[in-house]
Amino acid sequence: MVFSDAEYDHVILLAHGSTDPLWKTPFEMIFERIVSESSRDKCSLAYMELSEPSLAHVINELDESVRTVAVLPLFFSVGRHLRHDVPAMINAMNKNHLKIELLPPIGDDERIRASMVSIVKNHLGEPE
After folding, report:
1. SS3 for 11?
2. Domain annotation for the chain: domains and CATH numbers
3. What is the pLDDT of residues 55-82, one digit of tens each?
4. What string of DSSP letters covers 88-112?
5. Are 65 and 31 in contact (CB under 8 A)?
6. Does the keyword Metal-binding belong to this entry (predicted)?
7. Among 7, 2, 15, 1, which residue's Cα sits nearest to residue 72?
8. pLDDT in tens, 10-67
């Protein structure tokens, strides 16, 4: 699957969430790297459940000038959450002035799968 080249006013990275605070560390590191190389005003990190900030909180905190938002799940694949739970959350948060689009999970991107293959092959002692 190829990701859209559409431009959005804001991109929300959506992770699952956990009661273990250490679980959030890799997502926070990814987010901090993105905003250090891009713009903090154009990207946020949210959690579907069990962690804060929630998706609803992030959307409610967006500036009124934001009109188009992409929610990019930091999930490997589509499961129940991305088929049912997250779309329902987004539908409940729709506002007249705001278009929220749920993108395919990051695991659907061929670049992620290729990176994973490369990492496994490296552990097997095989060249890339």
Report:
1. strand
2. 10-123 (3.40.50.1400)
3. 999 999 999 999 999 999 999 999 999 9
4. HHHHHH-BTTBEEEEPPPGGGSHHH
5. no
6. yes
7. 15
8. 999 999 999 999 999 999 999 999 999 987 789 999 999 999 999 999 999 999 999 9
